[in-house]
Design brief:
- Helix 9 links the parallel strand 5 and strand 6.
- Helices cover 42% and strands 12% of the residues.
- The relative contact order is 0.16.
- By secondary structure, it is an alpha/beta fold.
- It is an enzyme of class 2 (transferase).
- Keywords: Aminotransferase, Pyridoxal phosphate, Transferase.
- This is Aminotransferase.
- Its cofactor is pyridoxal 5'-phosphate.
Length: 410
């Protein structure tokens, strides 16, 4: 190709967008086996041991493979899996969902989020996010040529209720709620949900509730948004098998929404994806249907909650960590690290834009612990870092030992 050739146009939105930060940090950590990687949410638990024999002998047989590989799945996904999802809500939350009209199977929770945005908003519409929030939301909003309406959410007991009482997002067509939340572990309170229902009905704003960490709570119970009074008809709920079952590579998720939204999502899905892997849907149904399911999920949730408690007791202000946000769920910690930042060598402070970035670089290089700077999740996270709690025991124990090895001033 001639060096004088003009560069062909590309997507300027994607070109200007930063890389997927936690994945990039994790990839760097994997290059050095001595690094204790607390940066990326790939659960060490899973697949559930209760389902291994069934998956091996039934779901992964050649006959099952051939049957699934030779045909396209229907737009809405496997009816058997949709019925299992319906039973999930009935058994866990005493909520009724119609598997024929209100449930759709997707390529993980990520596709469900994209479909939800496309189904209920148009180009240029504002979609509200709390700050901090999972970085994928804002990037997807931008990719879809919608407007990000990100508003600060101060730490406290009823964070979303306080946000709605003090800030205006009335023009947003949708509001994405992640509860239990990545990165902070926040779980919405009863007062939060009450305020959110009032806001949604007053402004005709859709609530997109990402509940992928629904089984991982401690101290505050989880409720799907469509089970809240006043939100049944205003909500799109997103869930998946990636986190709770420790199978992020399975790429199976689901959406619960009113019939009209499901019909639109099916149409979008056909044009973008055609169908979800049939064989993997069968594996997902095996996981949901097994009688040992709830006991296994409780065990993994207790492990994560125990690690959160141990971490908070260990990583005290003596080592530069404070906890203005108490984690109620999910599998992350989001401590404030201003104390640690103040003790850093000047070179780290000079090279970083935020306290979290400086501390993350210091911990990676000096302590051999990989974490994600909190600014990735919004300005409210500038003085925080995110740590995952779903690693192997050896990684978790090594990281905690290194993070608490040197008190400030020593």
């Amino acid at each position: 190709m001639s060096s004088s050739s003009k560069a062909m146009p590309v997507n300027s939105i994607v070109q200007a967008m930063g890389i997927y930060a936690s994945k990039a940090i994790s990839n760097k950590a994997k290059e050095d086996p001595s690094i204790a990687d607390l940066s990326f949410g790939e659960p060490v638990f899973g697949p559930p041991d209760y389902a291994i024999d069934d998956i091996k002998h039934r779901n992964l047989s050649y006959e099952t493979f051939l049957d699934s590989a030779k045909r396209y799945e229907g737009s809405q996904g496997s009816l058997g899996l949709r019925q299992a999802v319906s039973d999930w809500y009935r058994q866990r939350y005493a909520l009724e969902v119609d598997p024929h009209t209100e449930i759709m199977i997707t390529h993980g929770g990520v596709e469900a989020i994209t479909l939800a945005m496309l189904a209920v908003t148009g180009e240029g519409d504002a979609i509200a996010l709390a700050d901090p929030s999972y970085m994928l939301y804002s990037r997807t909003i931008q990719l879809l040529s919608r407007q990000v309406a990100q508003v600060s959410r101060a730490a406290g007991g009823n964070e979303v209720a306080n946000l709605l009482a003090t800030q205006s997002i009335d023009k947003a067509k949708a509001f994405i709620i992640n509860s239990p939340e990545n990165p902070s572990g926040y779980v919405l309170s009863a007062e939060d949900w009450k305020s959110l229902a009032q806001f949604s009905n007053r402004n005709n704003t859709w609530i997109i509730h990402d509940e992928v960490y629904d089984t991982m709570t401690s101290g505050r119970s989880h409720t799907p948004a469509f089970g809240i009074e006043g939100l049944r008809d205003n909500t799109i709920t997103i869930n998946s098998f990636s986190k709770k079952f420790g199978l992020p590579g399975l790429r199976i998720g689901w959406m619960v929404a009113p019939k009209a939204v499901i019909e639109l999502a099916k149409k979008i899905h056909d044009y973008m994806y055609l169908g979800v892997n049939i064989q993997y849907q069968a594996i997902a149904e095996t996981l949901l249907r097994h009688p040992a399911r709830d006991a296994w999920l409780t065990s993994s949730s207790q492990m994560v909650a125990s690690r959160a408690e141990i971490s908070r007791a260990t990583l005290t202000s003596e080592f530069g960590f404070t906890w203005n946000r108490e984690p109620h769920g999910a599998m992350f910690l989001f401590p404030n690290i201003s104390g640690l930042y103040r003790s850093l060598p000047a070179s780290y402070k000079a090279a970083a834009g935020t306290e979290g970035e400086a501390v993350a670089a210091f911990l990676l290089n000096e302590r051999k612990v990989a974490v994600v700077p909190g600014c990735v999740y919004g300005k409210e996270g500038d003085s925080s870092v995110r740590m995952v709690l779903c690693t192997a025991d050896s990684v978790f124990n090594s990281a905690l030992e290194r993070l608490s090895s040197t008190p400030l001033g020593v």
